[in-house]
Amino acid sequence: MSHVPHELIAEFPELAFKITEMKTSEPHFARLYEEYHEVNRAIHRAETNIEPTDDIRMEEMRKHRLKLKDELYALLKG
Length: 78
Description:
Blueprint: H1 8-11, H2 16-25, H3 27-47, H4 55-77
């Protein structure tokens, strides 16, 4: 398993400009973006054993990150 953080701009490099633009112009997008990165950093810390967690919590965090990623993508494409 890769322990590389899933930064949103790395996930959607073709939308990097729009991500940057929407972070400053769309409060709802900015809030979801920050929440995505908080969860993403928590997952990364758990995967690298900086802040280990159990499998159930890890699965919950990954599902939450995926839900946020889907919501952010929908806003970017909408």
